[in-house]
Design a protein that fits this description.
With about 160 residues, the protein is α+β, with helices and mostly antiparallel strands. It has helices at about 10-25, 35-50, 95-110, 125-135; strands at about 1-5, 55, 65-70, 80-90, 115-120, 140-150, 150-160. Helix 1 (about 10-25) packs across helix 2. The radius of gyration is 15 Å and the shape is globular.
Length: about 160
């Protein structure tokens, strides 16, 4: 397994993992799969703005996971805070890839001079909550029934990691 910075050519693999999460999980509250053009635009914007994106590539060259730093809010007062994303292919979950993808993301946040990383996690995603806790994230909020997907209301847990 190789963890490396993503390139634009990784967008189809990133897209496949994300779209599966859209259709089958509450890891994202998106309802509609994205197109390759949309994912490439997302990647180009991240690259242009200096936000890290990493991929996990297996021995066959398949992208089996990805992580990213994302803008937290557009207002300049939030420029030292980022929200993270970690997505793993369905057939590779539970194999430790989340740890491998979150670690370089935290290093990249430090290198970028960020002060805080925020994780907004569906309250039923206990695996992600535990993963973030192992990396020093602490729960700072629990928003009840702020999301809606698959015909049910969803809670969101906010976790934060201060970097300095």
């Amino acid at each position: 397994m190789t963890i490396r910075p993503a390139t634009r050519t990784d967008c189809p693999g990133i897209l496949a993992i994300y779209n599966d999460a859209v259709l089958t999980t509450t890891a994202t509250y998106d309802y509609e799969p994205r197109t390759l053009a949309q994912r490439e635009e997302w990647f180009d914007q991240h690259t242009r703005d200096g936000y890290a994106v990493f991929v996990a590539e297996d021995e066959s060259g398949r992208i089996v996971g990805w992580s990213a730093l994302n803008p937290y809010h557009a207002r300049p007062g939030y420029r030292f805070t980022s929200e993270n994303s970690v997505y793993i292919a369905a057939d590779k979950r539970g194999q430790g890839l989340g740890k491998l993808l979150l670690s370089p993301l935290i290093d990249a946040a430090r290198a970028r001079g960020l002060h805080a990383i925020i994780a907004a996690i569906d309250a039923t995603n206990e695996v992600s909550i535990r993963l973030h806790a192992k990396f020093g994230f602490v729960q700072v909020g629990h928003f009840k029934q702020v999301g809606y997907k698959f015909d049910r209301w969803l809670d969101v847990i906010y976790m934060e990691r201060l970097l300095d």
